Amino acid sequence: MIQKVVGSLEEAVAGVFDGATVMIGGFGEAGSPIELIHALIDSGAKDLTVVSNNTGSGEVGLAALIANRRVRKMICSFPRTANSTVFPELYKKGEIELELVPQGTLAERIRAGGAGIPAFYTPASVNTPLAEGKEHRVFKGNTFVLEEGIRADFSLVKAHRADRFGNLVYNKTARNFGPIMCMAANTAIVQVKEVVEAGTLDPEQVVTPGIFVQRVVEIAHPAHESELVAAKRRYPW
Amino acid sequence: MVDHAPKGWTMNEVAQKLALDIPDGSYVNLGIGIPELVADHVPEGRELIYHTENGLLGMGPVPSPGTEDPELINAGKKPVTALPGAAYFHHADSFAMIRGQHLDVCVLGALQISGKGDLANWSTGEPGSIPAVGGAMDLVAGVKHIYVISQHTTKTGEAKIVRECTYPLTGKGVVSRIYTNLAIIEVQPDGLYVLEMAPGVTKEYLQAQTDAPLVGFP
Questions:
Q1: Of all helices (H) and strands (E), which one includes residue A112?
Q2: Phi and psi (nearest 5°) for A104?
Q3: Span A19-116+151-222: which CATH code?
Q4: pLDDT at position A114 over 90
Q5: Which of A130, A164, B1, B85 pairs with A39 at a CA distance of 20 to 30 A?
């Protein structure tokens, strides 16, 4: 019987190895899988390359993973946000690498990685420093830059509901990078508020079909990053 | 010494003028900060659909206190609402809307705009600064009309509308109109045409505040 639901966060993040590429969902705190990230910190995995739109805030979630020196390199579009101090400080000291990618290019690189497309041309960043050194090509009189798809060893994603097949629905703008990060990872690990019986999710409404998901863990009451940051919490606590 | 410099329009008045220029039924992306003011000035009877690149079409106003949802936010990561008829989608779809030229208007802020419509709005290139680009390069590459809303000069009085941008570019030749406290300016292939000037602003004063040449006046 197919059963993608695992019983604990520890099982969910098992096998994440040193040097792995890990995609982490979320745009700001919306969709950030805080409990999975904390479990990843507990697992001890290090030298990670992390693909995520931002770099977290305060000293919880993604910011805590960085503060605990588990991340060698960040691939992201917007590494500074309100309450984001951990990454900027390490970056200024030269202790963490940054690959800055336009947000839409980041999304499409992830989608392409998951869709078996090794590279694609985009108009974004042409004539800017972010296109320097990359292959350019003219189509119908307009110039485009070649960008490569990204795949990950693991993705950590937050969704709303799942069934045992790994079918997912999301909540509002917390969907953001979740569906494409599930597609692009060898092992997509998803925390959901609720695991439901197969057949409960309307097949017409499923956003991520279970084929893209390998592990699901139920976290019924996920923490809100902004509340943890406001309370000056720091992980590990 | 008396300061005789014309004050020009307030940014609220500029936002109101910009809002009047967005046709009914447009799909619109508003940048973070001053561009967000535009949403407050949409004329009665006109319906615009707001896109926020983190994954929502049909974005509504700020929620009333106590009803904020941390999973319903805008590109500035601030709580918003979803209007009836709204739709959520993932990031690759969101930027397909942007890059695929499905959006009609995008309103952005600027550090510098050149006389040829080049835009610099993501980095001053200063050593030690943390570079962050977000969706700006995708927006200028894909949205049909890019409107800039900005103070005409920097806080220290330097021109923001320049012959050549000195800051790293967001995009080349992408800006169609510039709305400032002093004037509304259209970018044409042969230069900058002033469409309207704020009360008390003269051609000479406006040119003195603008590094790039202004080739046409109303």
A1: helix A103-115
A2: -70, -35
A3: 3.40.1080.10
A4: yes
A5: A164
